[in-house]
């Protein structure tokens, strides 16, 4: 058991080292949809879409903390994981960037509503401290990364985990949460800036096509890294995973 945990820890550390080596942050265009980039009407619209999910997310976290006070640390880890990964930027479409999201792990552990709050807090801190994104565009960025991404991750994980292939479920959930975030971002940009020829669909094809060049390999990398983190959690936090009904008791022994 000790040897297995040592191997898992080494793989986790190696994964982080490789990830940071090949995805070095770029500060020149380090942002989500940047401050002031969206027209005011669209910025307000996305805030309106986001706020109900945030309110339900607060209730979800409050319930989790009341029922499982010991999960506070794991909630913090989920938020920190999303913060670190989403801070890694690769310049992409004008006014935005490609980057991992890190929301899949928290969505698997605590559900999509809880991750809506954690993800939006990550976006807020990045906007205030790192100049990634902005306050007016926080609603739009939160819908794509903190609402849709976690929902996709949770649904995919539940669907695949039924077959017993848990690590595949974790990989697919993290990778598709990443990709779905950028599909929504492409839709948001296309709606705000339709092409003169072809309108919204042509604009979406352009934005999504450019994003795909960097986002597909990033999504695969994020999926693999999330599996490494899952292995680490299974080795050192099996009790918590059992309580969250993500691991059977006999698998934790």
Automatic annotation (TrEMBL):
GO biological process, one term: cobalamin biosynthetic process
Protein name: Cobalt transport protein CbiM
Classification via InterPro entries: CbiM, CbiM/NikMN
Subunit structure: Forms an energy-coupling factor (ECF) transporter complex composed of an ATP-binding protein (A component, CbiO), a transmembrane protein (T component, CbiQ) and 2 possible substrate-capture proteins (S components, CbiM and CbiN) of unknown stoichimetry.
Keywords in alphabetical order: Cell membrane, Cobalamin biosynthesis, Cobalt, Cobalt transport, Ion transport, Membrane, Signal, Transmembrane, Transmembrane helix, Transport
PANTHER family according to UniProt: COBALT TRANSPORT PROTEIN CBIM, PTHR43627
One of the record's GO cellular component terms: ATP-binding cassette (ABC) transporter complex
Places the protein is found: Cell inner membrane; Cell membrane
Recorded coiled-coil stretches: none
Keyword Transport among record annotations: yes
Disulfide bond listed as a keyword: no
A GO term, aspect molecular function: cobalt ion transmembrane transporter activity
Protein function: Part of the energy-coupling factor (ECF) transporter complex CbiMNOQ involved in cobalt import.
Pathway annotation: Cofactor biosynthesis; adenosylcobalamin biosynthesis
Pfam families given in the database record: CbiM
HAMAP family in the cross-refs: CbiM
Topology in the lipid bilayer: Multi-pass membrane protein
Record family assignment: Belongs to the CbiM family.
Gene3D superfamilies for this protein: 1.10.1760.20
């Amino acid at each position: 058991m000790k040897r297995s945990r040592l191997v898992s820890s080494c793989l986790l550390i190696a994964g982080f080292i490789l990830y940071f080596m090949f995805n070095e942050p770029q500060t020149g265009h380090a942002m989500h949809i940047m401050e002031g980039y969206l027209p005011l009407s669209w910025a307000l619209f996305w805030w309106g879409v986001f706020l109900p999910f945030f309110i339900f997310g607060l209730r979800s976290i409050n319930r989790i903390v009341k029922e499982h006070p010991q999960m506070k640390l794991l909630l913090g880890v989920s938020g920190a994981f999303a913060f670190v990964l989403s801070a890694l930027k690769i310049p992409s479409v004008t006014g935005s960037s490609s980057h991992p999201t890190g929301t899949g792990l928290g969505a698997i552990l605590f559900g999509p509503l809880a991750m809506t709050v954690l993800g939006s807090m990550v976006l807020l801190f990045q906007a205030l401290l790192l100049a990634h994104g902005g306050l007016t565009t926080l609603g739009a960025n939160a819908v794509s990364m903190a609402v849709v991404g976690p929902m996709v991750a949770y649904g995919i994980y539940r669907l695949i985990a039924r077959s017993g292939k848990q690590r595949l479920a974790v990989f697919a959930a993290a990778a598709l949460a990443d990709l779905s975030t950028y599909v929504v971002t492409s839709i948001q940009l296309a709606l705000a800036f339709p092409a003169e020829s072809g309108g919204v669909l042509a604009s979406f094809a352009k934005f999504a096509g450019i994003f795909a060049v960097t986002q597909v390999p990033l999504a695969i990398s994020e999926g693999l890294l999330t599996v490494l983190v899952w292995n680490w959690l299974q080795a050192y936090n099996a009790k918590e995973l059992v309580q969250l009904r993500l691991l059977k008791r006999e698998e934790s022994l």
